[in-house]
């Protein structure tokens, strides 16, 4: 079976079958104690149960596009999620609900929905990884988030040892977060997305996207136009995987945009007084989201900023830390991340938090 997931043949270190570098978009990560591939929901459950019976730790890995795995790897069982497929489970005149297997490549799903005239995912085009991982950090881009269209998630509950359904309202969705992130209790088996039957996108919310489409914020555009424009914008920032472009050997954004209370935000404004107004967006509860990319850039870490062993900030996007040489270690990438985090804190007093899940490493 051809596989769209990251399994690079070069620049991924020694050709050890279990080296997790082969399965991560950063091309980093030491060996797995045991590597299992699961191609169906039943196999995912079975392989997790088998590992539990062996008293093995379990790491669920799909596209490997949002994990940083330490150089020592993962001592337990890594279950590679490779289940595929989707089916319509409910429909009416206006909406279609599709149930998608966890291992379905995300962008294949987006392409299918756009081709079918189902609106809701078009602005999430080009994001790497699997459908099953999208609830984990409430994947979002260009003004859309999966939380808006997920109606429920089927999971294997490792604590209770049973398959269960969790409604969207109970998923704890928040900005790049959910109950699933940093918890190993649930394995996502399928995800239900409710989409609108419409040849047009939802209202375009992101100013940069609206500009690129030549429309006003709030306008709707043909689904295919939204998808093509998002893909073009993302490619220009190294945010679409490209085996030939080391700027994409990353986890996308390495840091989340900090969400500050009023006091912390005013402190930032004072500290940044010589730099103009920091880009910001209002958030519920009188909180303010600020741009991590702006903070990083203004703290002196511009595009292309080098780290040890050929790691670097992407030359196309300040938020993407890359294994640019293809031969770096996780320790080197983490050292670069620390340098940036500490530099931003020293300059602006704002803490940066990593967006990817860190496995056997920390910054
Ligand atoms: C170039 C690039 C651009 C990106 N752009 C964006 C973006 O615009 N917006 C955005 O939100 N993210 C972005 N990302 C991050 C990433 O693509 C998403 O978070 C994606 O959903 C991760 O999917 P994955 O299958 O690769 O997950 P993995 O990296 O394999 O896993 C990530 C985490 O989810 C867990 N996990 C995965 N599958 C399951 C499952 N079935 N059940 C339980 N746990 C599971 C893993 O254990 C791990 O903790 C980008 C990454 C890259 C490399």
Textual characterization of the structure:
With 363 residues, the chain is an alpha+beta fold. The chain contains seven helices and 18 strands. The strands form six sheets. Strands 5, 6, 7, 10, 11 and 12 form a six-stranded antiparallel sheet that branches. Strands 1-4-2 form a three-stranded parallel sheet, with helices on one face. Strand 8 and strand 9 form a beta hairpin. The protein is globular, with a radius of gyration of 20 Å. The two termini are 36 Å apart. About 3% of the residues have low confidence. The chain binds flavin-adenine dinucleotide.
Radius of gyration, taken over Cα atoms and rounded to an integer in Å: 20 Å
Quaternary: single chain
> What integer is the average pLDDT?
94
Q: What's the total helix number?
A: 7
Shape: globular
β-sheet strand percentage? 15-25%
């Amino acid at each position: 079976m051809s596989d769209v997931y990251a399994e690079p043949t070069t620049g991924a270190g020694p050709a050890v079958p279990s080296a997790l570098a082969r399965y991560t978009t950063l091309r980093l990560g030491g060996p797995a104690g045991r590597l299992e591939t699961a191609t169906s929901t039943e196999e995912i459950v079975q392989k997790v149960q088998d590992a539990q019976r062996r008293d093995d730790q379990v790491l669920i890995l799909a596209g490997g596009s949002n994990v940083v795995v330490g150089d020592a790897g993962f001592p337990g069982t890594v279950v590679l999620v490779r289940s595929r497929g989707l089916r319509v489970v409910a429909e009416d005149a206006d909406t279609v609900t599709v149930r998608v297997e966890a291992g379905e490549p995300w962008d294949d799903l987006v392409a299918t929905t756009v081709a079918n005239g189902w609106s809701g995912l078009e602005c999430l085009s080009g994001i790497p990884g699997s459908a099953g991982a999208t609830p984990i950090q409430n994947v979002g881009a260009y003004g859309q988030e999966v939380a808006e269209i997920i109606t429920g998630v089927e999971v294997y509950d490792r604590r209770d040892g049973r398959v269960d359904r969790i409604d969207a309202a109970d998923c704890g969705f928040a900005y790049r977060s959910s109950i699933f992130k940093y918890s190993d209790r649930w394995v996502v088996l399928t995800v239900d997305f409710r989409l609108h039957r419409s040849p047009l996108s939802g209202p375009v919310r992101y100013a940069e996207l609206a500009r690129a489409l030549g429309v006003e914020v709030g306008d709707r555009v043909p689904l295919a136009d939204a998808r093509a424009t998002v893909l073009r914008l993302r490619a220009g920032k190294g945010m679409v995987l490209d085996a030939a472009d080391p700027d994409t050997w990353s986890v996308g954004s390495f840091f989340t945009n900090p969400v500050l209370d009023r006091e912390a935000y005013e402190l930032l404004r004072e500290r940044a007084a010589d730099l103009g107004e920091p880009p910001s967006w209002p958030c519920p509860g009188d909180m303010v989201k600020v741009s991590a990319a702006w903070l990083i850039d203004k703290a002196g870490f511009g595009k292309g900023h080098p780290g040890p062993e050929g790691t670097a900030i992407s030359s196309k996007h300040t938020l993407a830390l890359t294994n640019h040489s293809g031969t770096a270690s996780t320790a080197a990438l983490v050292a670069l991340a620390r340098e940036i985090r500490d530099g931003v804190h020293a300059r602006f007093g704002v803490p940066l938090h990593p967006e990817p899940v860190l496995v056997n490493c920390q910054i």
